[in-house]
Amino acid sequence: MSLLEKIRTRPRLQIGEKPNLDGLRSSVRAVEEAFPALSKTPAISVQQAITKVSSALADWQWNGVTTGMVSMVCRAFLRGEVQERRVQEFMMREMEATTSLSVLDAACEAYFDDWERGSARTRWLARLIQDKSPSLPARWTRVFLALPDLLDTDQGTRRVAERMLQQPDAFQWLQGCGIASPHSGLLMRQIHLVWLATMSPVTTRESRDRIFTWIRPEGHPPITDEMAAWAIDKLVEPWHQAMPEVSYRQELLDRLLNDYGDPRNARREFWPLTSDASRQVLRRWLAGKSMDALLRVITQATEATTSMWPPRHHFWKGLHERGVVTEAWVVLSPNAAKIADYLHAQTGEETYKMAGRQTAKSRKDTCLLIMRVGRYIVVEGSHDYRVHLFEANDPRAPQLYKDYYDAEAITFPADDPMARRHDPQGNWMRWVQERVLR
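^ thats the sequence. predicted structure below, dont judge the formating
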């Protein structure tokens, strides 16, 4: 049956009989409750609505100004788009008198989005929300009943952060309290900062996982802005002057690499948001991983040089463990790069993808290990490539973490005193130590 046919079959009203609109009114209330931000405004721009309200205030002539326009200006005021003082004061009075669900929803959103410690506007919004608590949309009533401290503009962020510390999954807990987007808005940003500052040093797997659960919540978009960077600083902070045990360090590093990429040459828009100290720690840890990866790749790349690389690896890894090698970057030949891709596919180990490419045609099989060792940039190489020591400020010294290198372009002449052949007796190791350890 068509809609028109259904209408025709309905009984007609008798003259003078009033229809029962209770069902319709109930439906309207249900829609308003479900969609509090739904605007009942005319098709005019925000600026036009502000101009109409301003003119009405000047002449006290309200013909043509609808409640929808006033509601539109209220939301513009909450977004900081109303500059005229007279209109601002009028909007504040209107909001203090309103019971409009859409306007009160916008007020709660503005409180979360634009929260500022000590701000008169923030304090006014907190008072407004408290005064209007019987009229708030259901979702906000739920939030402020569960977390009344949110409306304490002085101590509320600290109290909520302290409650978050008691939760194994702070993100899920806040969502359970009714906060749909726990990472959104300046209020939650401040709570995040206080939560990190109040937290004890992160040296256990439990506390480490608690941070990752917060910044990378399962089933929800991760945070990749300053909030994530501050969390990473908190994770790395205990290790500025110490070294965690190997498995913990490996787990933390793997998680950071998988989630945020290599801090040495990936996600350049994100990693500078972290502190210099954090990046230095991560580069130091990655130096050791790069050395280990290069050993495995070279071992498979050529049988002819299999026996010559382990002593070099042992030597440089030893200097790394002593804190002398602070950075390292692997540069792979085309053949070695294919092996690294294969090992990455087999193991999922991100270190195999973190390498530059060696492009010299005359040394197409040579792999390089470029390191920062004290005041030197050291270039180590496979096959018959000599070990090279560049002063760090030497313009000829290669930069770390580039995508491509030409081994011939960074090779000293045969008689240069700052390059040394790898003799079987290991005298080259003493030669290196005499220079980098003094």
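The radius of gyration is 33 Å.
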